[in-house]
Design a protein that fits this description.
The chain has one domain. Helix 3 packs antiparallel against helix 11. It is mostly helical.
Length: 360
């Protein structure tokens, strides 16, 4: 077999190598649990809690915000644990370049260090900008490795798009802030242009994830991915629909939550798409977790990348992209999970093909 191909098990006849590949099967349950908790944290923290202010009762608000905070802290703890475990595994893997491994491990530690103060207080503007920059560089390094292998190529492309969006978002933010300080209309329009480009790249990344999931299988892949898009569209429609009458509680909550998603500066003509991408990314992350015939590390990396949403100035989402980058690289050289997934996929493809012969 070709030792230069990371998807093939490496064999050496001259010297013993006790750890030629990574074996990350032990982390499958932790990866799925982290992604599930992250999806729930975003549902309550992004889709529900912000829109309940001024609409729901005080007790309901306190319960929802308490649940949202609990899920967010749990998500952060799980992400940090995954990053620590991923750093340990990357340090042991010999089939990834030393430069890539050491860079990802070092930058992951920096991401954790920059994001940790957010547990106690809101990050300073410069700290948030530094966090976004560092997380984007980390995702780019992981992209350079994962794009070389077939079964992690989709994850690599997704990481690349989100890394670009993660870099453009703070640029748009800073251009707008500078426009306010200098009273410059040109800088303000430049900031809106960059914000529009950021939303377009996020939309393309979400579309790529939906297309990849849709090709995994007919039911778990295509049907669920299409269903996620339809449900996300319905949520966005309920939030944006104005019938002239008093909106229902659900419509008011969704409208209040999704109206805060585009951020500043407001993009040109893509505000509704920015709102649509929030539920779409959450639902597609859940769809990724229920797939079969794919290594769990790949599916979890896609789910965590979608939950990061290309907004790395948010500490939780920076931690999510760091974990996704690490475990995507580990999935690249995890032969055991890869071949087990391929065997399962082969079995699923051959069973329907034999059914007509059996009936005949």
């Amino acid at each position: 077999m070709d030792a230069s191909n990371p998807s093939e098990p490496s064999r050496s006849s001259g010297e013993a190598n006790p750890r030629p590949t990574a074996s990350i099967a032990w982390a499958g349950g932790a990866l799925v649990l982290t992604a599930v908790v992250g999806a729930l944290a975003k549902v309550f923290g992004v889709l529900i809690a912000p829109g309940m202010r001024g609409i729901a009762s005080q007790r309901s608000m306190e319960l929802t915000e308490g649940l949202s905070a609990t899920l967010s802290y749990t998500f952060a703890a799980l992400l940090i644990a995954l990053i620590c475990g991923g750093s340990f595994e990357l340090a042991r893997v010999q089939r990834i370049g030393v430069g890539s491994r050491s860079g990802v491990v070092a930058i992951s530690g920096l991401v954790v260090a920059l994001a940790s103060p957010a547990v106690m207080h809101r990050l300073h503007t410069m700290a948030a900008l530094a966090l976004a920059l560092v997380a984007s560089v980390l995702a780019m390094i992981a992209t350079a490795s994962t794009l070389r292998v077939a079964h992690t190529r989709a994850v690599g492309a997704l990481l690349a798009l989100l890394a670009i969006a993660g870099l453009l978002r703070p640029i748009a933010w800073e251009l707008t802030a500078l426009a306010g300080e200098r009273a410059s209309l040109g800088l303000y329009h430049a900031g809106r242009t960059v914000a529009t480009l950021t939303i377009a790249i996020q939309a393309f990344a979400t579309l790529l994830a939906a297309a990849w999931l849709g090709t995994r299988s007919r039911w778990r892949g295509r049907m669920l991915a299409n269903g996620a898009i339809v449900v996300a569209f319905a949520i966005t429609y309920l939030a944006a629909h104005d019938s002239g009458d008093t909106p229902s509680t659900v419509e008011a909550v969704l409208r209040g939550s999704l109206s805060q998603t585009s951020g500043l500066p407001v993009p040109y003509a893509l505000t509704s798409i920015a709102a649509f991408l929030v539920p779409a990314s959450i639902l597609l992350a859940i769809v990724a977790l229920v797939q079969r015939a794919q290594p769990l590390a790949v599916l979890a990396a896609i789910a965590l990348a979608l939950l990061s949403h290309g907004a790395f100035d948010v500490p939780l989402q920076a931690l999510a992209i760091a974990a996704a980058s690490q475990w995507a690289m580990l999935a690249m050289v995890d032969d055991r999970s890869l071949w087990a997934a391929r065997v399962q996929q082969r079995e699923q493809e051959t069973v329907p093909a034999r059914a007509p012969t059996t009936q005949a």
